User: What shape does this take?
Amino acid sequence: MKAPSLQAFIETAITDSFAIDQLENTTFNTAVPAYLKYNRIFFVETGAGSITIDDNKFNVAGQELFLLAKGQVYLFEKSTVVNGFVLCFGDCFWEKAPASASNCKAVLFNNASANQRLPLSEPEMLQLHYLFTALLEEYQRPQYTNQIDALAAYLKIIMIKIANVRTTAERSLDTQDYLMYRKFMELLSVNYKTHHEVRDYAKMLAITPRRLSDLCKRCTDQSTKAIIKGHLLAEAKRSLQFSSSPVKEIAYSLSFCTPEQFSQFFKKNTNFSPADYRSRFVNIGT
Assistant: This one.
């Protein structure tokens, strides 16, 4: 008997892997979860409702940013209303931004769960409104030579400003310590499927596991182990929700020795077996 298909909206390709739109009393009536192929920034100036991102629910009230990384899943509560902007960009578009801004993307999106919602001060709101408005106007101009470069430059500035919002609470950290933490996040984004232990990343960074754990705790209030586990769980959930791969294949793709070991890990951290978790997303919205 053929298993029922998993229902979800998987966003279609965006021209040049970049798009921006203004939200004016926009009402979201999301029927099913949306699976992202692009990184996404919701700049919420005012709003009411809620958004669920990878099983984590956030109230939408305004004066805030929501950062969603490629591969995450989100769902707006019915009739959520937002005023502000939504900006989408792919990795290939980000590569057009000057290399000097690369760390900003790593800080914000390599550990998206730690940056999912960023509250904004009034001065930050005003500055970002100006930048998003300027970017939207540039995006809506008739096409011209080097327009993509101009859009990428605006995106670079916005990402730098958002990264500054993220690091405001971390300015007391030693600069070298914070750079080490950022390097860890870059390594994790590439290696989390194959390297699950704190000592693996400590070795790559040439520091002790204890020092790495101290850095992560100071920067995110999370342990290194919790950050690694979060990446694994998010990938496991996405695979169970939006692929038809057997649990066994998912387990091996995440470098678990056996399907049983994967199932124990998953159930310990979600209270669901992989099969039960997958069944929750069968025929969602029907």
